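Email to the structure team, subject: Orotidine 5'-phosphate decarboxylase model.

Hi all, the expression group asked for a predicted structure before they design truncation constructs. Nothing fancy, just the tokens so they can compare against earlier work. One-line instruction: predict Orotidine 5'-phosphate decarboxylase, return tokens.
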Amino acid sequence: MNKPIIALDFASKQQVEAFLAQFSEPLFVKVGMELYFQEGPELVRFIKSQGHSIFLDLKLHDIPNTVESAMKGLANLGVDLVNVHAAGGLEMMKAAKRGLAGSETKLIAVTQLTSTSESQMHEDQLVYVSLEESVLHYAKRAMQAGLDGVVCSVLEAEAIGEACGQNFLRVTPGIRPATVSVDDQKRVATPAQARAKGSTHIVVGRAITKAENPADSYAQIREEWSGKF
Ligand SMILES: O=C(O)c1cc(=O)[nH]c(=O)n1[C@@H]1O[C@H](COP(=O)(O)O)[C@@H](O)[C@H]1O
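Reply from the structure team: attached below.
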């Protein structure tokens, strides 16, 4: 079972160091916009030097040429996973993949954000299909572009596995143990539900980073995810 990916949604290197100091094992962490825009590639190199795996979550969405060039730069960082928005289109996703040529970094596409509900999708995007249909459409386009998988919610993970194959990554944020606040997320599930529905990775932020004891919370989530209880 892949380790839960911990979203390091912090504003500074000091906070990251204090957080990581609570763990004695190699982790799989996510560096997102909040942290990257403050601390940049240096911090990514630092986390890597500590032996952790990294999902660099910058959600690129621009014209194909710009995304390809940006990915060429990110390829040098040697992270494990990066992402783009599938809404950028097939050509943009193919360009992103070209930018990563020669690197080991896997590329996934965000489908519909887990903070989006079906009614919001209708109102904000004028996309009048079901949310699952939209997510499935994006997943198929990502597969067609040669990507390694998608970011989706647990609610769509099973259908994507059936449509795109079990090797196609289904990285699922919006993970909440039953007792924890949902916050701004709309399409949520527990770690056990994620396992049952075929997520290949879970992404967990606040349920760990804001917990009274992050290491305990991580251990519990990891156990639930791996099916130990
Ligand atoms: O690409 C992502 O990682 C992502 C996509 C998505 O649809 N929803 C989503 O929540 N995320 C990220 O996953 C993390 C979830 O954080 P928590 O809600 O605190 O667990 C955040 O860092 C989000 O940026």
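The chain is about 45% helix and 15% strand. Strands lie at 5-7, 28-31, 53-60, 81-85, 106-110, 149-151, 169-172, 201-204. Ping us if the truncation boundaries need rechecking.
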